[in-house]
Prior knowledge:
There is one protein chain. By secondary structure, this protein is an all-alpha fold. Helices cover 79% and strands 1% of the residues. The protein has 38 helices and 2 strands. Helix 2 crosses helix 8 and helix 25 packs antiparallel against helix 32 (568-574). The radius of gyration is 46 Å and the shape is rod-shaped. The two termini are 14 Å apart.
Amino acid sequence: MSDVARKGVAMTATAQGAAPAARANGLWQRQLDHYPDTRPRMGYLAIVVLATIALYYALYIPGAVAPSIIAHYGMTFNTYIYIIVISNAVGAFGSVGAGLSDRWGRANLVAYGVVIVGLLVLFGVPNAPNTFWYAFLFCLIGIVEGVILVATPALVRDFSPQLGRASAMGFWTLGPVLGSLVVAVVSTNTLNHLTAWQDQFIICGIAVLVVGAICVVGLRELSPQLRDQLMVSMRDRALIEARARGLNVDKLLEKPWKQMLRLDIIGSAFAISVFLLIYYTAVGFFTIYFTTLHGFSLSTANSIGNWFWAFDAAALIIIGIISDRVGVRKPFMVLGAVGAIIFTIVFLNLGKGTTYATFALVISINAVFLAIAYAPWMASYTETVEKHNPALTATGLAVWGWIIRAVIAISFLIMPIVVSSMTPLVTYGAQVSTLATKYAPELAFAQSHPTVVAAAQKVPPPVVATAQSIPPTVLAAAQSVPPTVVATASSIPPTVLANAQKFAPELAVIQANPALFAKLATYKNPATIPPALLGQAINAAGGGAKGINILTTIAANKAAITGVIAAAPALKTIAPYSAQLKTIAPYSAQLKTIAPYSAQLTAMAPYGAQLTALSKVPKADLAYLQEHGSSVASAAAAAPGEWKNWWWVCVGGEVVFIPLIFLMAGRWSPRRAREDAQAHERLVQEEMAKLQEQEA
Length: 696
């Protein structure tokens, strides 16, 4: 072996065997002066992915309990969306600020950012007293997320060679996806017995703080000189460290934004932002969509998400490995976009009555196609940035972070215009549904007999109680007597009615002989009545002792009998109903009470049991249903069409993604990609030989 070769081997061995420099210690100094070996490098990558999962777990947890949060604070659906919009807007500026990590490093931003998020989630959000403080704390989490969104993929880039970039970025994109999966799994298994939405934040906060502690203790990063070199394979390591000796970092970092604000970078960042509209809609609104439109419980709605996130996560890894193996990104992006378009269209056409299994199948396939596009895009984007300047990866990622936050904020700002009917469904829909189910028979009767219910509402409860206290036979008798007869009977003094019954025989004689008794009435003194006329009267009254008794009774009760005779027309009117009137007489007071409502009570009579059941429904529940039932019903009718329109907006974003793929770096042909890699390998060997000659 030549001296040059031996020196080259020695240089490589030294680089491979070198331990991290002493300054990578403590809780602040985290920089490594030598590129780490595979095992520690994989460890650092694992911590980065774990931090990303924890962060997105915290960011996405509101989506799992969105209906409960909205109900707890009494906010409208629009208010909930605007909080997300503001959080994404401030997160966009957090992403821009994270571009400074190209100068200051990434590890501290990630480690302490995760700790801050954990504290906010554990102690802040669950104790937010009102909507303002909830929104404020959620926006603080959004700012930190914007910073870490940029810092974590930059760390992945630092610890991954370019030929393994799609695999590495596939692992990084596991962060958001597995974060969503953790949200769905935890909430699915805890919401049934931990019903308070705050419990989900407490569980999340504890988990995030544990991950934060791991980051503080174990996370490291490359020194500026090492991380600002473009790595294309693990065999570049010795060359990177050799070149790093004379690297002018400040020169590479001059005017970073000017270097990164290029069409291919901005265009590709915008492309993935609109492509992922369906992803972010799923994160924030799947539970609302499945609970309000399709009637699933909150835990079941979250379990549907389990399928989406699990298939997405698995596909990200598999596609990343395949993309690295074949050496191309763009064909995968096109395939993923076309598949996502097809299955988003299938999804938006799934209507009411679609089964759990059908939803799970469709969204799982859609998730796979989203992953097929996203993992290669992430790798291609970092390669596009590095094509301009490998020292400004964090700045390039900050451009992407700002654009994706801005697109999400603007899109969700438009969302309430497209889906305008959700506020009644989200705010009142669950309670209306619960009450409607609980009182289904009563409400069904009310809906099918509106006139009866309207009549019942006009009758005061005491009147109803009085009517119920009267025996049915009495009510039947009362109903058979015309109101005019009842009125006539009521106009006759009770003494007259009693006298009419008491002196019925006497009255019968008088009514049979009106002329005779009219003549008798002319004699003021009975003693002056002629004997012949008196005998005639005795005979008319029945003769003998009977006739004498009747005439004696008439004479003794002249005033009472005269009163009865004066009321004769009225008595004649009520006579055909005497039996009924006798039956109802003991209940005259009660009948008088209910008389003004006789028409309503007649309409109500056949439905006594149903009206009684309806009357037992609490007034507060009925008032709630009356106040919000119609608006919820109208919203439920409008919402499916409005959501379909929004899913079409998501399809539009997926369509826009395809032509912007052509702006990005990378080959379409695996053969050309292999040729590029081989050419690069030759360049590496030449550079290594030159360096070895210089060392000699």
